[in-house]
């Protein structure tokens, strides 16, 4: 889940919870307010009726009932009962409604002086009223029709408001978060294009002082430091390799002249040849370091060429023949008639030539018969496979994990001269061309397969 979605969801959930709690509080508060208001109305009506009954001597029960029935404070389904101290009913209103009560309610009223309870849709209020040394008990019951109607309206209003509000909040929060974090999307798109070959790419900065712009500035500064370090390292490696290679070439030339001069004892001649081989090995190592340092520098920005893989293989074989006359190659080509421009790839010829030569040299050095088999296939228009196979000792599974690392050499290379950089160079060049290389071992068969994808 993306960061903007997490923020939008967390903010929306927090608002939904807070708004829900606020709406619940409003509804509960209004419910309590309705209850207290209706209780006050019942109390006022009960006291008014009782005082008219007890204080106005000229009013009999019939007139009182008529007054009670037509009062402006008339409540819905109201019923009023008045009892004397012996719990005897002395007055009841003309309403057809009935009050559900027991003598225990009157006893409770005598003890507690008042009580309030709800029986279904009826709300009952009891009041203790002392008058002229006599106790009276008033029970009044009614329905708060309008109060509950208001509560229902409030409930529907809160539910509709809640649904509309949280919908708007979820949509608007995601929209604004997405807009605010848009620079992060641009940040991510840009940094995915940055590689060791493109450290000069910088992110766009603005004049704002927010965290994203500060992060952009810090990232650009880091890129500047990395680019400087990379360039310094490559420059040093290139210069050092070049300076070392020149005297080694002179030493090798002098050794070859000395060997060709003859008149040396066999032991001395063998020493000279061993020294010359070591010099050549050092020269190969320096050439490898120089190539690794200059690989990305020299080729970046050049236009890719259209090359035929079979031509690359035959050119590499010709070069191998000059250095290793006893090397033989068995070549196979599986043509696919459904593919136009068969076996064509895009790349740099000089670099891909090094790849094929290194694989053929590796097959020659580690084979039992100085022979390699090269198979070129094209299963579809976008894929070209180059497989180099030789018979010889294989490497262990543990060594295979380190096969393309610098200076990595297997147990089967104990008696073979080499720097351990050949396959590393191959991997770097193929990575540069966005191609893959895989190694498999089966019995005494070593196989390297290159996968070129269009």
What does this entry look like structurally?
The structure is a single chain. The two termini are 32 Å apart. A hairpin with a 2-residue loop joins strand 3 (114-119) and strand 4. This protein is α+β, with helices and mostly antiparallel strands. It is built from 11 helices and 12 strands. The chain has a 5-stranded antiparallel beta sheet with strand order 2-1-5-4-3, sandwiched between helices. A 5-stranded mixed beta sheet has the order 7-9-10-12-11. Strands 6-8 form a two-stranded antiparallel ribbon. The radius of gyration is 49 Å and the shape is rod-shaped.
Question: How are the SSEs ordered, and which strands pair?
Answer:
Elements: H1 3-55, H2 61-69, E1 76-83, E2 89-92, H3 103-112, E3 114-119, E4 122-131, E5 134-143, H4 145-180, H5 182-191, H6 211-261, H7 266-299, E6 305-308, H8 309-323, E7 328-334, E8 344-347, H9 349-365, E9 371-380, E10 383-391, H10 397-401, H11 422-432, E11 436-442, E12 445-453
Parallel strand pairs: 7-9
Antiparallel strand pairs: 1-2, 1-5, 3-4, 4-5, 6-8, 9-10, 10-12, 11-12
Helix pairs in contact: 1-4, 6-7, 7-11, 8-9, 9-11
Spell out the key features of this protein:
alpha+beta, 11 helices, five-stranded antiparallel beta sheet, five-stranded mixed beta sheet, about 450 residues, rod-shaped
């Amino acid at each position: 889940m993306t960061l903007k979605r997490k923020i939008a969801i967390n903010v929306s959930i927090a608002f939904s919870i807070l708004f829900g709690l606020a709406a619940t509080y409003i509804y509960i508060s209004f419910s309590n307010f309705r209850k207290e208001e209706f209780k006050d109305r019942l109390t006022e009506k009960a006291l008014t009726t009782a005082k008219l009954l007890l204080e106005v001597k000229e009013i009999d029960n019939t007139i009182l009932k008529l007054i009670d029935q037509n009062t402006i404070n008339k409540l819905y389904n109201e019923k009023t009962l008045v009892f004397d101290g012996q719990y005897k009913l002395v007055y009841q209103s003309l309403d057809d409604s009935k009050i559900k009560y027991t003598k225990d309610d009157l006893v409770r009223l005598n003890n507690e002086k008042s009580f309030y309870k709800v029986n279904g849709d009826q709300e009952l209020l009891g009041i203790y009223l002392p008058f002229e040394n006599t106790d009276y008990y008033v029970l009044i019951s009614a329905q708060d029709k309008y109060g509950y109607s208001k509560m229902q309206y409030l409930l529907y209003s809160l539910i509709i408001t809640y649904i509309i509000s949280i919908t708007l909040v979820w949509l608007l929060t995601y929209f604004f978060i997405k807009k605010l974090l848009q620079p992060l999307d641009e940040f991510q798109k840009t940094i995915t294009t940055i590689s060791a070959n493109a450290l000069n790419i910088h992110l766009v900065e603005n004049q704002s002082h927010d965290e994203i712009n500060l992060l952009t500035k810090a990232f650009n500064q880091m890129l500047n430091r990395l680019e400087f370090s990379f360039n310094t390292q490559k420059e040093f490696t290139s210069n050092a390799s070049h300076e070392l290679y020149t005297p080694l070439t002179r030493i090798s030339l002098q050794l070859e002249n000395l060997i060709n001069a003859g008149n040396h004892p066999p032991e001395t001649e063998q020493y000279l040849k061993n020294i010359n081989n070591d010099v050549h090995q050092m020269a190969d190592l320096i050439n490898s370091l120089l190539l690794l340092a200059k690989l990305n520098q020299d080729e970046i920005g050049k236009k890719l060429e259209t090359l035929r893989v079979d031509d690359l293989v035959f050119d590499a074989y010709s070069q191998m023949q000059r250095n290793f006359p006893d090397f033989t190659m068995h070549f196979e080509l599986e043509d696919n008639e459904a593919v136009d421009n068969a076996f064509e790839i895009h790349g740099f010829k000089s670099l891909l030539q090094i790849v094929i030569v290194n694989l053929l040299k590796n097959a020659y050095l580690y084979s039992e018969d100085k022979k390699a088999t090269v198979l070129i296939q094209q299963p579809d228009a976008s894929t070209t496979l180059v497989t180099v196979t030789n018979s010889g000792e294989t490497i262990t599974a543990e060594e295979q994990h380190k096969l393309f690392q610098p200076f990595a050499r297997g147990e089967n290379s104990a008696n073979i001269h080499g720097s351990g950089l050949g396959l590393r160079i191959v991997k770097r060049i193929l990575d540069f061309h966005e191609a893959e290389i895989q190694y498999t071992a089966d019995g005494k068969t070593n196989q390297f397969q290159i996968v070129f994808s269009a």
